[in-house]
Amino acid sequence: MTQRSTEGRGRRYDSVLDTIGNTPAIRINRIAPEGVNVYVKFEAFNPAGSVKDRLAVNIIEAAERSGALKPGQTVVEATSGNTGIGLAMVCAAKGYPLVVTMAESFSVERRRLMRFLGAKVVLTPKGLKGFGMYSKAKELAETNGWFLASQFETEANADIHESTTAREILADFADDKLDYFVTGYGTGGTVTGVARVLRKESPGTRIILSEPANAAIVGSGYVNTRNAAHQPTEGHPNFEPHPIQGWTPDFIPWVLQESIDKGYFDELLPVAGPDGIAWSRRLAAEEGIFTGISGGASFAVGMQVAEQAPAGSTILIMLPDTGERYLSTPLFEGVEEGMTEEEMAISLSTPTAQMAAE
Predict the structure, then answer these.
(1) H-type alpha helices, 102-176
(2) For 80-107, how does the pLDDT look when each residue is reduced to its tens digit (9 = 90+)?
(3) Which of 149, 217, 300, 302 could be a cystine partner for 182, CB 3.0 to 4.6 Å?
């Protein structure tokens, strides 16, 4: 077997922000159904560990270009975590203060990561759900003259996926027909931006969108009310709390509305939270791919598609983030901190450096 080697990237980077994007498409070898080609686009390779690094840098740089964001001005945004982490990285690199509002129900790791990157995190009551943290960010921006990042409404969100994510996908599958593209949604930026390009340049690719089964707000057919700035003015009546953190706030974002209105997805498939957890665990244990519950949920839907797809089909599934920001969530329930009985038995099978039985 040939030994692996590396040659470097052939360049040096002026900023961590220059390393965003160009994430790999990785083949699934052990758990995909036979006869189909399954790949994942693994966004954990972004420098702050998620797909939201893309929109974070584009929101800030678009605002710099337009003059909407002034030097030294505080940025504020409502987030379930990944956008906040991405914004914290970008603001740290560029020197902007950042305040994040986040419902207290989201994982502790997220708030600690944002604070580690220099952000302030303002928690909102979990009973007010996503609309509560959204309203708080909007209020703070209006009261203090801060720049509201507006990930759910800004054109900068889908635009970055149109100019980067979609182009990477086309390049990675230039020598092969991509039959299916599978993704969930949070803001809707990924599906909207990618679909703009695939609809034109890869029209044979079927775009599959997913949402939590118990928070199927797009599938309900009801669109929440919005104001003239396209900001939601109510929570969605069909929303229920779900474990797929990062997916489906309790309103339909304006960025996602473009995909709904223009028919950018061919099928909407709901997925149960426990299925996302189960497939995330399998990806880690059987493929060595460490993604969160949202990635597991997208993969669960991708496996549904793969089971029904014609032989020889090629499927690409978006994995939005790394699993490390889910340590305190149900994803890690049952993962022991001490040794299991089996591990203790292995230890006792030889005499050296044994731990005392717990």
Answers:
(1) 108-116, 129-144, 155-160, 166-172
(2) 889 999 999 999 999 999 999 999 988 8
(3) 302
